[in-house]
Structures are given as structure tokens and as C-alpha cells.
Amino acid sequence: MPPRASDQSGRPSRSAAHRPVQVLIVVLATLAGMLPWTGTAQAHGTIINPASRAYQCWKTWGNQHTNPAMQQQDPMCWQAFQANPDTMWNWMSALRDGLAGQFQARTPDGQLCSNGLTRNDSLNQLGAWKQTTVSRNLTVQLYDQASHGADYFRVYVSKQGFNPATQRLGWGNLDFITQTGKYAPAQNISFNISTSGYTGHHILFVIWQASHQDQTYMWCSDVNFA
Length: 226
Ligand SMILES: [Cu+2]
Hints:
Elements (H helix, E strand, L loop, with lengths): L1 H41 L2 E5 L3 H9 L7 H5 L1 H9 L2 H4 L5 E3 L34 E3 L2 E8 L5 E9 L15 E6 L8 E7 L5 E11 L4 E11 L1
Parallel strand pairs: 3-9
Antiparallel strand pairs: 1-4, 2-9, 4-7, 5-6, 5-8, 8-9
Bound molecules: copper (II) ion (CU).
């Protein structure tokens, strides 16, 4: 009985005493709720070899992005930094959720290199993007800070005769190369692809369907088939 009496008499004062604690819990819960979001916003991935457009610009110019020499030496990165530097700072975040596999229906021609993201439209612009020299059999390398794993990758190469410097990439300009199998979560995932009949500047177009949720990434990597 003494405990119960003490309970009842203590309730109002205890409740008042707990109010700051409850507020703190709400604050902590809110912060905790924000953590995964903040984490995923800053940590995803891209194709680092052959480098996707935003990654190549970030890697080459990220630590000297105001260097005026970029305008002459790498005009496509220059225009991308002018348009929106966040495209480069967030080279890992070119994602859309909930596409339900409707990649073509929900990605208009001319917006493939930006994954249909307005903020990354600089990546669709025409010109002399820096190219990675590759051979017909090549290794494609994903770096994913978040280790999402992959349901699959779909890989395409722009058709022979298509000129990435003067033509906006549409679905009709692509040859489908392969769709990979599933990959377990890892920061580094790489796979080999085989092509034939390509020479000169092509776009390697890769779709990454991540495994943790319906999350789709699309990138253009400029390659030179030697
Ligand atoms: Cu992610």
C-alpha cells in the first residue's frame, strides 16, 4: 500500500517532471528518423569505371571546380558546374524511386543521361565529354557507399554511327548488351561485358536496379572503343 499511495500522490509531479524527458524523446526520435534519410541522401553510388559523366567531372575538377582552365580543357564539365554543381557533389545520388521497372516509359528521350532528373539536365548536353578508352570486352565497376546490392544491371551501348557529341541520346539509339544477375550488398561490384563492332566514341548506358527498395539509377559513361 505505501508504494501505491506514493504512486498516486507522486503522479502529477512525476508527470510534470517527465515532460522535458518526453520532449527530449520526441527530439531524439525525430533525429533518429532523419538519420537514415541523411545517410542515404549522401551515400549511394555510380559507375566509376568507365566513369559516369558526373563522376568524371567530380573526380577531375571537384577540388578545383572554379579553375577557369576547365572551360577550355573540359567544356562539358564546365557547363555542368555552371548549371548546378550539386550534380557533381552528389555524383552518387542520380536516383529515382518507384519506377516499377518502367524505365523507358518514364524516361523521355533526351533525358537518359540525367535519369530524368531536372537538376542533372547538364548531363544530357551535347559536346565533347571526356572519354574512357575501352576494348570490346570490358569491366564495368560500380562503387556504392551504401552497399545496396543489385537486383540487376542493364547495360546498353549507343549504336555505331550515333554521335554523342551532336545527338541527344534516346532509347532508339541504344543497343541492348546484357542484363546481369543479382549482386549481394557490397561497396564494390564489377562485372564483365562483351561487345563487338564498335569503334570510336560511344555512350555506355547503365541502369542499376538497387536491391534495398525499388530504386533506379541511370548513367551515361563516355567511352572510346579502341
Ligand atoms: Cu542509396
